[in-house]
Amino acid sequence: MDSEIKKYINLIKDYIFNNYKNNFRKPVEGVLPYPFIVPGAFYTNQLWDWDSWLTGYALMSIDDPDIKEYQIGCILDFLNEQDELGRIPLLIQDTPCFFLPNLKDTKEVNIHKPCLAQHALEIIEKYNDYHWIEDKFDNLVKFVRYFETSQYHEESGLFYWFSDLCIGFDNDPTVFYRPDKSTAPIYLNALMYSEQVALAKIAEILNRNDIKDEFIAKSNKLKTAINNECFDNKDGFYYSCDISLRPVDPNVWLHSGYPRFWHTLPIKITTWAGMLPLWNKIASKEQADRVVKNYLDKEGLFSDFGIRSVAKYEKMYRNVPSGNPSCWLGPIWINANYMTYIGLKNYGYDELANAIAIKTIKLLGKDIEECGQFHEYYDADSGLGINGLGFQSWNFLVLKLIEELENNGN
Question: What's the confidence (pLDDT) of residue 405?
């Protein structure tokens, strides 16, 4: 490890260790009964779904017993807001939210991303403590089953968003501005696979073998669907799918001679989410090798600063400041860098994985050196921070990358 990287590691550690507690919030009476984590010091009392998951996971690298309480609190706060259908909001805050409808007022609205069970399992494994989730486990099951009954495309075996509102990968061009309920995104389905796997593992810990068997079977079924429908054999990459095909109707004369036998159409737009089947080991080794070949295209996803959120050759590619939605049309996001790192490690691409770890450390280290804080996302061509100065959240995942490099003697 050269002196420059060591310098940036020290800058990053000093910054995070001196600031991470600014993301902690005490309970808010009547709204958030448990302590929780916000995405950055400048946020008020806002509990966001996958931000709290990935921030909490990143903070496990810090030896601070208080972190456990705040991580558990995030999950319990969300479960406290669950409705009778099993739905959990993707955001809880202490003031009315102008852009998200109240769950009571609508039947079809995007909810918390499928990452609650994953977060819970990480806490259980880190602290060797499952007692806090025992009484709430059935709520986690009900949450995942809601997706199965309301956002599941039976024909393809894939899950879909209701709309493009607050999907996390905000302006994913395979969903953004497309008709409601028309896309089964690789992003959502990869998260759901990991959620089902995590739910099965928690069930095993709690001796709930009926639930364990149920979700092992469901995760295996979803894995098969993702590989059958989302992996493109010509391109060697995972894409989102268009599920807005008209149903096969034997009474329609025009189609009766040879009705369609395919279940989806590929939406061939290359995004960072096509790497997620490596992050959670959905891909076979052969598939992973082909995906990595695509990743290495310097006119595609590969950048000197990590992985582009959308490939450079796509017509949607842009590095611009925006909020609501945040720009995911090209910029570097640290959670995408981290998940890509894990995916590369999973399939033996250690050298490439270490390279993306070093890129991330340099990117964030220079940001602290020049601006004193992290940005939310970064220009994939220049490495300059684009928007959201002061954003912390999953940027803290850089601690996991540093930890891995140091533990491996790099």
Answer: 93
Q: Taking CA 143 as the corner, what is the angle to CA 277 and CA 95, rounded to the nearest 5 degrees?
A: 105
- How would residue 105 be classed by pLDDT, with cut points 50, 70 and 90? confident
User: What share of the chain in percent tops pLDDT 70?
Assistant: 100
Cα–Cα dist 186/297, whole Å: 20
| Helix 49-59 vs helix 66-80: crossing angle, to nearest 10 | 160
Residue of 60, 80, 179, 73 whose CA lies nearest to 126: 60
- Residue-wise burial string across 227-265, b where 16 or more C-beta atoms lie within 10 A, e elsewhere: eebbbeeebbbbbbbbbbbeeeeeeeeeeeeeeeeebbe
Name every residue whose Cβ is closer than 8 Å to that of residue 65 and which is 6 or more positions away in sequence: none
Average pLDDT taken over every residue of the chain: 96
Given 3-state DSSP classes, what are the helix, strand and coil percentages for the chain, each rounded to the nearest 5? 45, 10, 45
Q: Do strands 24-25 and 240-242 pair parallel, antiparallel, or not at all (unpaired)?
A: unpaired
At 356 the three-state DSSP class reads: helix
pLDDT of residue 371: 97
Residue with tokens 């001196």: 18
Q: CA 195, CA 218: separation in Å to the nearest integer?
A: 11
Question: How far from 106 is each of 102, 138, 251, 332, 341, CA to CA, in Å?
Answer: 7, 24, 35, 34, 38
**Joined tokens for residue 139:** 């709520």
d(CA 316, CA 285): 30
Cα 372 to chain centroid, rounded: 27
Beta bridge partners of 240: 267
pLDDT band at 99 (very low <50, low <70, confident <90, very high): confident
